[in-house]
Amino acid sequence: MVSWICDKCGYNMEADTPPEKCPSCKKECSFVDNSCYTPDCAGKPTDPRITGKE
After folding, report:
1. CA distance 49 to 8
2. Does residue 14 contact residue 2 with C-beta atoms inside 8 Å?
3. How many CA atoms lie within 13 A of 21 on its CB side?
4. Taking 60 as the threshold, does the pLDDT of residue 52 lie above it?
5. Could you say which of 7, 15, 44, 45 is the most buried, measured as most Cβ atoms within 10 Å of its Cβ?
6. Rounded CA separation 37/22 (Å)
7. What pLDDT score does 46 carry?
8. Phi/psi class of residue 7: alpha, beta or left (left: φ > 0; alpha: ψ in -120 to 50)?
9. What mean pLDDT comes out for the span 4-28?
10. pLDDT band per the 50, 70, 90 thresholds, residue 28
11. What is the Cα–Cα distance from 44 to 21, expressed in whole angstroms?
């Protein structure tokens, strides 16, 4: 599964593909993949440097 974060409210979820509407803020969002693919995340499933907000 991939970890996704909402670009509007920061809601974090795990799913194969992100939904069209955020389950938290109920808005149509662009979900950002914030899964950790590097060893410097210390074993955590998400990368805290990726917030989804610009």
Report:
1. 16
2. yes
3. 5
4. yes
5. 7
6. 24
7. 74
8. alpha
9. 92
10. very high
11. 26
Residue 34 DSSP class: -
Alpha-carbon distance of 3 to 52, in angstroms, equals: 11
Integer Cα distance of 21 and 36 in angstroms = 23
Which residue type, as a one-letter code, is found at position 30? S
The model's pTM is 0.71
What tokens appear for 40 in the block? Answer: 């410097």
- Distance between CA atoms of 26 and 21, rounded to whole angstroms? 6
* Contact (Cβ atoms closer than 8 angstroms) between residue 34 and residue 46: yes
39: CB partners within 8 A, 6+ apart:
none
Name the amino acid, one letter, at 47: D
Give the closest residue to 2 by CA, choosing from 26, 50, 24. Answer: 50
